[in-house]
Amino acid sequence: MDMSVTEAQSDMRQGYHSGAAGILASALAWFTAAGVAALTSPQKGILALLIGGMLIHPVGVLICKLLGSRGTHTKGNPFGLLAGASTFWLIFCLPIAYFLSTHEPHLFFPAMLLIIGGRYLVFATIYGMRLYWGLGLMLAGAGFAMACLNASTLVSALVGAVLESVFALACLVQHRRWVLPNNPFTATRLD
Predict the structure, then answer these.
(1) Structure pTM?
(2) Could you count the other beta carbons within 10 Å of the beta carbon of residue 189?
(3) In whole angstroms, what separates CA 9 from the centre of its chain?
(4) 112 in a domain, yes or no?
């Protein structure tokens, strides 16, 4: 099935609730990591984010279904492949962030903010939403700022959690404004 860019983006928005469910699942992983870092150690907080990160997609799909979306895209949607490729890029970056944390544990979360911020920039194309430019640039900027300020692991993790929570809510608002039920190709605006 050949899809136009607009149709493919609309299908991704319909299938994944404009990505809001994934952002929310990611925010939950960041909040969990912050809590673990605060209650135990920075190293255990790092492990919590790595484990939580592996659960983002399944938790995001569950949230999608609870919100009334499919939690998947139409077979043949080329942006499904782009999302997968960006996931591999993220996974390939994890060893760098982890290696950095073995020398400077407080830099793991800023590095992850930069990496995840970069991945969200791809989502601007996948979903056809400028919101992802804002999210990606805010996370990357926060990562850079946290590194420059030598922020604690707790502060850096909380910054990631709060930013993703705010953008998850903004994405939910945009999704509800754009997408009409039972019409997978109604949302075509790039806002």
Answers:
(1) 0.90
(2) 12
(3) 17
(4) yes
